[in-house]
Amino acid sequence: MSAAYGLAGVVLVVVATVLIGVLGVRISRTTSDFYVASRTVTPLRNASAIGGEYLSAASFLGIAGLILAYGADMLWLPVGWTGGYLVLLVLVSAPLRRSGAYTLPDFAEARLESMAVRRVASVLVVLISWLYLLPQFQSAGLVLRTVTGAPVWAGGVLIAVVVAVNVLVGGMRSVTLVQAFQYWMKLTALAVPLVFLLLAWRYDGAPGLSSDVPPRFDDRTTVSVGLAVTVNVTAPVQVVVDGRVDGRDHRSDPMVLAAGEHRIEADTDVTFPAGADVPHVRGSPVSTDRQWMLPLDGRDHSLYGTYSLILATFLGTMGLPHVLVRFYTNPDGRAARRTTVMVLSLLGAFYLLPALYGMLGRLYTPELLMTGRADAVVLTLPGRLIGGLGGDLLGALVTGGAVAAFLSTSSGITVSVAGVLAQDILRGGVRSFRAGTLLALVVPLALAITARSLAVADVVGLAFAVAASTFCPLLVLGVWWRRLTVPGAFAGLVAGGLLAGTAVIVTIAAGPPGGLAGALLAEPAAWTVPIAFTVMIVVSWCTPGRVPPGVARMMVRLHTPESLDVDRGTWRPRRV
Amino acid sequence: MLVTGPRTRAVRRPRYPVTREIDEQTGLGEAYMRSLIRTQLRLAAGLCLVLGAVAFGLPLLFEVFPAVREQEVLGAPLPWVLLGGLIYPWFVGVGWWYVRQAERNEDDFAELVDRSERSAAEER
């Protein structure tokens, strides 16, 4: 892809986002109250805003990349991210709206009448948000590098600055108006190029993926390695190297890569002959096309991994910090349910697309398995399959969509975490909100630059696991179980947070160890979620005297339809 | 007042509007609330059970019967057709069905409360 077009895509989306943000401030200042104004918003626009905020870089780039690398097992990822909304709809959507809570700590305080539980919830919100932002910044770096060759930290810094400006200038109001636009932007940016890619694929004779060999280079192929990698070569192969391999410099020299591991340094070109097996980056499984097409083939402990993934995604969605805020823009509990169903349709439509990108990537960009940049498959395909001006334009469109994905999710999370930081950890007020915004962005940005590069959907998956192990039990038991006590909720949040948090830190800092322990740490939800639920229930049973006194009134508030005139209590969330 | 039937066979009507019973958290008010929550919980739990059966059943099906995962439908392997396509409209359908049922439960509850409210007003 030519850098000019890609850069144009990035600039266009950034400028549009800032403009709509600034314009949004002007529009919303003419209304007396943001919340009143938002109630005139149609359900479709509201649902688009939710979808726009929810579809992050992990959805836009990460799913296709993971499907390219791991195959059919990863189809569960988008299924879980959609199914999570169904679970949220069924278990908590209407009661959450009726609670009047604006953030997760608000709900904890309202339901349990305890500042201690509120504080634990605040800390967890901040940790989950940082975990969610870290891969957004990392893949922003990847995108900017892929299209312009800029250093990897530049993309993350760019996104952080734009988000900071938007949030600081407009606060909550400006961000809201951008989101709906960005859902449709992302859908278009993925759907339109896909139509052309599928046409090109048909024109190519619609090749399938049923052979019993691992991916191969069909033609003589030059692979440019941007960032240093260690790759695994399965059979000796004669290559031409321009750059540095295994500590030796080569100037377009022919050499034989023996079977085994080889270290390829940054900015090295390796040219493979036609028919050579694609070396895989260390840690990435080598599977034949047939294994790749079928679930539960190839990876160790794949059944456990699949179940853990399902549990984390189905139950984690309701505990994400930026999801609850959006429920507040519905006028009542019923509208919250209807909006959620619409979100389900919008997400379902979007998630039909990434799997096809993964499949086409397996056919046409197998070298991404070698460079370890499978996340770039969505960006690479248009230029590879279509080429020329058309390929450049479609590439620019996809790039713009990716930037929209970073901006919308990062803005949504930043706003929610800045609110929590300002209210519960700093002193409150507008100055704290501003300080919170910077804190919300700087920490994950620093982590993104210093931590090793990680697959975006993997890290987001860990954020879901933490949310599923902490807020899911709190919300589900809080909404449906009167006998939940303050110590029970506190103990459950701490236990789930510590266990899942430890697994996350080990996985990110050191990489998961091999074998079963590695599977347990990389996909912790299957054991941390049941433990968190158990702790919360058992401790509540043991402390029956600590049921919050207002629980009956709270249950009335959570469950009775708004048409009935009953006493719902006087609790109101505090404002920043 | 004209009594048209034996009083003993009529349903015991609450003396106050049910909303007031609920507000004052009397035994009767709590019974109304519990029945609402139980109905909604039964609906939600049933649906989660179905969802869980699908989400946990499919991988098990693929694991235990490898022939199923190699089955081809419309030229694509069955897992791709199910997980990459059909499951999304199914989610939306289940969602719509749930919303209708949950709203019906709430309407029933509201009607029950309203009716008792009217009859309490008549008795006074």
| Structural class designation of chain A | alpha+beta
DSSP strand content of chain B:
under 5%
Number of domains of chain A: 2
Helices and strands of chain B, in order, run as: HHHEEH
Q: What would you call the shape of chain A? A: globular
For this structure, the quaternary state is: heterodimer
What radius of gyration of chain A results from the CA coordinates? 24 Å
The CATH superfamily name of the largest domain in chain A is Sodium/glucose cotransporter
Strand order within the widest beta sheet of chain B: 1-2
Number of helices of chain B: 4
Q: Helical proportion of chain A?
A: 55-70%
Radius of gyration of chain B: 24 Å
Key descriptive features of the protein:
heterodimer; A: 576 residues; alpha+beta; Sodium/glucose cotransporter; four-stranded antiparallel sheet; three-stranded antiparallel sheet; 22 helices; 7 strands; 68% helix; globular; B: 124 residues; mainly alpha; two-stranded antiparallel sheet; 4 helices; 3% strand
